[in-house]
Structure formats: structure tokens, C-alpha cells
Amino acid sequence: MNEAIQSGSTWWRRLSAGLKRTSSSIGGAITDLVAKRKLDAATIDELEEVLIRADLGVTTAGRITDAIRQSRYDKVIAPEEVKRILASEIERVLAPVATPLDVGGAKPFVVLVAGVNGSGKTTTIGKLAAKYRTQGLSVMLAAGDTFRAAAIEQLKLWGARTGAKVVAREPGADAAGVAFDAFTVARNEGVDVLLVDTAGRLQNKAGLMNELEKVVRVIKKLDPSAPHAVLLVLDATVGQNALSQVEEFSKTAGVTGLAMTKLDGTARGGILVAIAAKHRLPVHFIGVGEGVDDLAPFRAQDFANAIAGLEG
Q: For the whole prediction, is pTM greater than 0.90?
């Protein structure tokens, strides 16, 4: 029990530090705006603009300012009170999508991992492999990003590091063929979890998207219920562009859940709130650093408090 509490507090410190650029940007603007001022219509409009600029989205920004207006209109309001309302409203948006990724049921449980170049996709696969191995599960990695030799080598390194078997072909090989081989071997060997990497395809490149569709089709031929999860890895630093990535990848691969990385490298962490409000897809994981422990299951209250700059 004490270990769990200590682990939770360690992650909170990591998350809070990782979201510092986002919380400082929002918190600083809130303090500048409301300190020693009455909450009149002009101040509320300016506050809404601050929240929209922080990538929280128009809908969520409107909900937050409506809640502030109802409780404190035409009165002096402390910045900390605004932050508490901010955290509460963000949590309301995020709580329905904060969903763990359950890899039980099927064997192998096939997770197809998609995302654009630079999103942290291959690293996320490695971190997930480490987590599942720690839980005592057997893991196999499929090096389906055949366009980049570096991605194949990176996955092999993660395999060696985590004790996960890696199925790979030479660079330029057919990605669907790699997925087919890996699924066949994983099923024959009774592997618990198969993580399939895919090329970092740009969402506006039709040919690459068609290849992703082919990978999905090939996997379904082996098991109509697979892939059992399609995890889209998003880079928080791209801001609003992440919204269009969710739309395009959902059409192509049937995204079932999200992982957001690089939250420690941006003041635009609020984009996850906008994505949750618009798409309502489960958010399984968030990442706030390069270390293997810097990827963790998504918890709405922790994230909301960290963005608002509140204590955990």
C-alpha cells in the first residue's frame, strides 16, 4: 500500500513538472487578468481568449468561463479560485475518456500503434513493452515501420532491453507481411501481447494511409476481432494539428484509444482537453519525458490539477 502511495506521489511530481510550461502559461495569464479586478463581461471575454489560446478548445473554454460567470460575476475573484474552477471543468471533460487499456481476453492481444513521424510512436511501444513485461506478460514487437531502418533498429533495442521478441524484415519490406508473420508466430508461441509498429505516415498521404488499411485487413484475416486495440500516439507539441490527426487516423484504422506524448515539451498541453471534448475517444496513456517510467495510465483529476497548477 505504501509503495502504491509513493509511486502515485512520484508520478504526480513528474506529471506536475512535465506540465509546468502549460500550467505556467495559463496560470500566469489568469493571474495577470483577474488579480484585483472585478469579474465583468470584458474580463470574462479576455479569460475565454486565454483558454482558447491554450488549446483547450472553444467549447471547453466557454464552459469554464460560464462556470466562473455564474459563481463570481461582477465580484473580485482570486486567481486560485479561477484555477479551481478551471480544474473542475477540465476534469468533467476528461473523466469519461480516462480509460485503462485492458490487454486481457484475446491471446495474443494485438495492439496496432499508429501516428505520424516524430510523435514518439516507437518509443511508446518500447515503454509499453517494459510495462507489460513488468506485469509478467509475454510481449512480442512487430517492426512494421519498414520505411525507416532506424525504427527497426530502435524496436530491436527495445526488444533486447525488455526481453520482448521482435519480428522484423529488411527495410522497405511489406509492412502487412511483417504484421502477418508476427501474428502467426505470436499465436503459435502463446504470446500475451503483440505490439505492432507502423510507419509514421502523414495523415494527408493517401498511399501511406492505404498501406495502413492493408495492415489492418491482413491482421483481420488471421483473427476477425483483431487488432483488438488501435492506439494513436499524438505529439502534444503540434497543438491543433493533433485534432486532424485523430480524424484521419480514425477513418483509416478505426482508432480505439489515444496516447499523448511530449507534454513536458510544450505550453499546449490543453490540446488533449479539446480532443477529448470533440472526439470522446478513450485516453489510455500520457507521456511527460524520455524515461521508461515517464509514460503512465491517464488519470483525469491528476491531469486537470496539473494543467491548472494546483497541488495534487
A: yes
